[in-house]
Amino acid sequence: MTRIIADISVSLDGFVTGPDPGPDSGLGTGGEALHTWAFSDDPDDRRVLREGTVRSGAVVLGRRLFDAVDGPDGWDDTIGYGAAEVGKPAFVVVTSSPPESVRLTDLDWTFVTTGLSDAVAAARERAEAASSDSGKDLDVVLMGGGATVGSAIEAGLVDVLSLHLAPVVLGAGTPLFTGGTPRTLVQRSVTSTTTATHLTYDVR
C-alpha cells in the first residue's frame, strides 16, 4: 500500500531553513545544521536515511525547493536525494509554471500546475507504478519545503510525518507549522543519535 509520507528536518524552534533562504542559499543562514545527520557516519543515521530513500517511489517538492536543488549550487554527483544513498525516484514539482529549462536532466521531473492535491495524486500514480515494477510497496515522500509539507498536512493529504529534529536553535527562518487545523499524531518510533532525534508519527 502506497503511503504519503512527509519527511523533513526541523530545528528545535520549528524552522526548516535558517534566515534568508534563497536560490543561492536554499537552507538560509545556518540551515546546513539541520541536515548534519544525513551526512553522519552514525549507523542509526545511515539506517534512517537508507530506509527513507529505499521506500521512495516518488517525491513531491515545491517550486522554491526545486529552484534550490536544480540551481548551479544545488545537487550534483555527490549530493542529491538521500545524500547519495541508493535510488532515483520520480520527482513531482508543485509550481504555478514549469521552468524554461532543467539542469538535472538525468532525473525524472514532472511539473504540476494545478495544485498540491493533483501533484500528490500524480506522485501516487508514479509510486504505485514503481511498486508494481519492483514487486515491493513504495511510498510518496513529500521532502519539502516547509510550506509544501505544512499545506499537505493541513489538507489532510499526509499519512505519516517523519521529522528529523536537529539539535539547533535557528531563531528565524521558514517555519514548518504556521497554525491551521489541529491534528492528532500517533507516535510510532523514536531514534536518537548525536546529530538528530528521528521521530515518526501516523497522522490522523
UniProtKB/TrEMBL annotation:
Residue ranges occupied by any Bacterial bifunctional deaminase-reductase C-terminal domain in the UniProt entry: 4-194
InterPro entries noted in UniProt: DHFR-like_dom_sf, RibDG_C, Riboflavin_Biosynth_HTPR
Pfam families: RibD_C
Record SUPFAM superfamilies: Dihydrofolate reductase-like
Name assigned to this protein: Dihydrofolate reductase family protein
